Amino acid sequence: MSTVCASCLNILVFVTLQQRDPMLKRDGFEDILEERRNSSDLKYALRCYAPVLYKGVTPCKANMLKNIVLQSDQLRYVINQVSQESGEAPDIIQEEASVILEEMAHRLQISTVRFFAFALSKAFKTLFQHVCVNEEGIQRLQQAIQEHPVVLLPSHRSYMDFLLMSYILYTYDLALPVIAAGMDFMGMKFVGEMLRMSGAFFIRRSFGGDKLYWAVFSEYVKTMLRNGFAPIEFFLEGTRSRTCKSLTPKLGLLNIVIEPFFKGEVFDVNLVPISISYERILEESLYARELLGVPKPKESTSGLLKARRILSEDYGSIHVYFGQPVSVRSLAQGKVNRSTYNLFPRHIPRKPMEETQSFVNDTAYRIVRLQEDNMVLKPWVLMASLLLQNLEGMELSVLTEQTVWLRGLALSYAAFLDWPDHAPTAKVVSSSLALHRGLACVSGGRVSLVVGEPLGPVTPEEALFNRAVSVLSCASYRNQVLHVFLRPAMLAVAMHTAASSKKNEVYNCFSFLWDMFSNDFILCPGDTVQDFEEACYLLVKTGAVQMPQQDIVMTDIGQPTLSFFNGLLEPFLQGYQMLLPTLRSEHSVLCVFTGNLRCYEVLSSDMQKNALAALLRMDAVRKVKV
Amino acid sequence: MASNNNSSDRQRIAQQRLSRIAAHLHKHEDGNSGIIAKECKIDATGSPEENKGTVPRKRQEIMKWNGWGYSDSKFLFNKKGQAEFTGKRYRLSGMTLPRLQDWFENTFGASVKHKSPATPVLNASVVPPPRLNEAFVENLKATGIPFSNEAEDRVFRAHGHCLHEIFALREGKKFERVPDMVVWPNCHKDVVKIVELACKHNVCLIPYGGGTSVTSALECPPEETRCIVSLDTSQMNRILWLDENNLVAHVEAGIIGQDLERLLNESGYCSGHEPDSMEFSSLGGWVATRASGMKKNVYGNIEDLVIHIKAVTPRGVIEKSCQGPRTSTGPDIHHFILGSEGTLGVVTEVTMKIRPIPEYQKYGSVVFPNFEAGVACLREVAKQRCAPASIRLMDNKQFHFGHALKPQVSSIFTHFVEGLKKFYITKLKGFDPHQLVVATLLFEGDRERVLQHEKQVYDIAATFGGLAAGEDNGQRGYILTFVIAYLRDLGMDYCVVAESFETSVPWDRVLDLCQNVKERIIRECKERGVQFQPLTSCRVTQTYDSGACIYFYFAFNYRGLADPVHTYEQVEHAAREEILANGGSLSHHHGVGKLRKEWMKDSISNVGVGMLKSVKEYVDPENIFGNRNLL
């Protein structure tokens, strides 16, 4: 740390901030539902759909695609290998491969897409006030699709995500993507097939050692990518984030779509980060229960039908932001030497080299951060952050006042805030409370969280459970703003815990926190110093901190900011703290129950999982087979 | 008598052969005025005889000082706006090419109104005065070996044919460093004397053969403070002996391709080594750069053709003691010399394989619906090892380029036939004129075998959707490669800069490499402010068992650019990086020179570079051969 010139770093950080976060250059939004409310859905579903494709390729029939995959050198090689290892005849293995492919492959059909276009129009209009899309992003995407193979990488918060994506692309006459979906969907009778016919292809959740499966799968994806038949879409986070916090990215599919570039099979691959922000998530209360250990309902058609009741509620608006396409070629410039791929036949599968692995990992984190950057935040997100620091409830006036203050802070940290123009703050606060009346309520001028009251007598455990559900639901909104405040907040905590105000010591604490939290938050590997400098820069910029010589000290006006930040991360700190001793006892619930701990979030399986992973990673605990 | 019959047969075949060579190089001429037939004198002693080579000491008397080739041959747009090719030497000479202007203007966004003429004569003031080493000059005079320090002679040998070199000549730019004198040794012994004197007086020698380098290999290192002597081998151009029992000939290394072929033909033989530069490039140059000839499928590349090399180094003369066809005597020392690019010494004499002139030669061509199909066909041909003497696949752009060089059609009938062919291919067979590509073929051998071979290749082609498209189309493809350098001069008269470069690559990467390199060029041009779409074209120009040689053309209209050559160099640099990243080699036959030195370490590893360095260290510790190529 001390070896790096601080002022250089400041400039560097400033520049990267400008690059990553061109706040002033974010596009405006258009509401695509507006037109749907004013014209015929049927006409819309039946209109002429003729998207432009990559370099004008002709679309490929699903069957032709399968043949290309089955006859590829790559797959033939693995088939022979598996056949030699297992002693089965190649024909049999080939047949197996064909079956896998059959199970996996999409069967995109325009008629199904039209059906969805019609049905979703109806559903969206009932559920949402607005579905907003940045049209400049769409134009950039349209351009990109013609020039290079495109990979769409949306954030994943809801089952809605991929239907929504296809719906939007259809609306703008863009090539429909093929979407990697978890096999669990396929279990849904009829619906699974419908999804398949709207472009989903299904992959098993785990196929660790299955060479043949991996080969079929990766060749299938690569064939579509190389030939530019359709944009590939998948979720870097791997699964829906139940906490609304971005999940650390999974690398398998990203590896697959980047490899053709390294092997020179395509000139470039464009990765398009897409941020889908929901004002209210359909699965809101389900997620909280799931985090508390109530099993996720199995995807089933009947379940979906039962979920119809959600149609009667108001879920606010959706914002979909298509980010700037990221060129893998530019990213890899100077980082990966492609000629190292020259000495090995391209059709023989090989573990990616270390250099490549770290590049892919790095890229994945950068993309997720880009997703975060363009997430649209609603005022309620700020209010939820404040309410969670005041679980006993707040005066409405205080909440309003502090929300305004927090809004200023968030904006100066380049948050993408969707604050209604020209509306008085009180109105904004009250309408937010109205939309989220299931989570918070006002009574006697005080705002507090709503705790579900089951009928009949309540056991203390049930009461605790209900309380936890409401806290975790609320936390899922606070989590949406964490990426804006995370770095300064970690610095605030570091300043609080460091033994002195020496920059080095604060940095050491920061670095420890950074390391510890890197399973919970999106912290790009190797960026500790840069993140620290960014945090310093932001806190100094907003006047909360001064940095005379080698010290970091709070200013006179810094108290509210720093204490808010400390409060923001407190649940996480307490959660991690709790977990160490409770690893030995099996009564973590008891701790909360008996009042040892005020933090409900430690009950979240997500936090437990992340904390455990962090502790394992940091060698604080190790796994023992019992 | 049988032997008499034999020799008269041979005479006849030689005559046929000559006219065939002339057919793809030169204009048909019954009188054969430019080419003087000469009996081969088998002279075991190697004693000098009178010089009958094409190249005079004063090259500038017959060749352009600031462009490609003969002074009397050039393309120009005449007053009617039609292109014509002047002179009498080539098949295209004296013809008008009605399609060229349209093609030129449409391809480059250029206009015949925007001229960028070259400086007509060399201005002596831009040439630095010679730094002579008086003692060396004195000693040299005593040997009687001719030399010169005139500006024209020195400038002519200060460059090869890289774009930046020719561009600078045309602009009349000031030279930083040119050779201080030129010497013309007449034989091996002369070279030995010159090298000895150079070592004695610490003079820098730069061997000069045909001057067709495209790797900055002939550029004088600007930091060189010693006297630089250009050693022009052009007068060492005799066939010293010819051994019909073993089918080898012993030849002085300064001989240029066309003279070698002509002289061998007179005895009924050929070398079969026909690089596109064969009109001007020399045998020694081929050896020093690892050259490749168009018909390598039958005759082999230069490393397959040489049996024995004699070279003069500062350490003395290097040569093998026998002419065994193959030896197991440690690493082959020929391979230190092959590709040494003038850094170790001068190649003076070479024993090389010769072959009887083939009885029959036939061009051919195949049209494919697209480049992918064409490459697949060539790959199959290579797999079955049935490649004709030459097989090349030109991409769509090059196909159209070739067509732009069609001379005026003389009869309505040919016009009609042309139209019919086009109709057949594009309408009846459904080939997209913007996708279709053409493979050009050249078969050699006895008539029956050629016809059989031809059928085999066309049958393979048919399985990839290829349609035979006639001899004429094939031949035109080869004409293009011989006049391309003349065409570059035409382009430069109208603000278009152009260059070619090559690589070799495994079969499975051919398509990807071609596509990625073209795309990289287009993108780099755009990023560097080139206002017009560049021309990027490639052909698969050689096939091997495991891969192919790809040849790229790259040109753009530079109007609006401050420093077109710099822009060009940046783009070419990027293109080479793209080639390397796509599994291509640093060079297939152009060599490294100074242009591609920076990639040598990555190409042959640190140890490899170290090996070459230690050889240089031993052979030439004082860096007498100081052109600084390669390492």
The oligomeric state is heterodimer
Q: List how many beta strands of chain A DSSP finds.
A: 14
Q: What's the total number of strands of chain B?
A: 21
Radius of gyration of chain A: 25 Å
Note the total helix count of chain A: 25
> Could you tell me the radius of gyration of chain B in angstroms?
24 Å
Termini separation of chain A: 42 Å
Biggest sheet character of chain A: 9 strands, mixed
Poorly predicted ranges of chain B: 27-48
Largest sheet of chain B: 7 strands, antiparallel
Query: Which structural class is indicated by helix and strand composition of chain B?
Result: alpha+beta
- Strand order, main sheet of chain B: write it out: 18-15-17-16-20-21-19
Please report the two chains with the greatest interface, counting residues with C-beta closer than 8 angstroms to the partner's C-beta: A-B, 13 and 13 residues
Q: Roughly what fraction of the amino acids of chain A lie in strands?
A: 5-15%
Our measurement of the CA-to-CA distance between the termini of chain B, rounded to an integer number of angstroms, reads: 58 Å
Q: Helicity level of chain B, as a percent range? A: 25-40%
GO biological process, one term (chain B): ether lipid biosynthetic process
Pathway (chain B): Glycerolipid metabolism; ether lipid biosynthesis; Lipid metabolism
Keywords (chain B): Acetylation, FAD, Flavoprotein, Lipid biosynthesis, Lipid metabolism, Membrane, Peroxisome, Phosphoprotein, Transferase, Transit peptide
Organism (chain B): Oncorhynchus mykiss
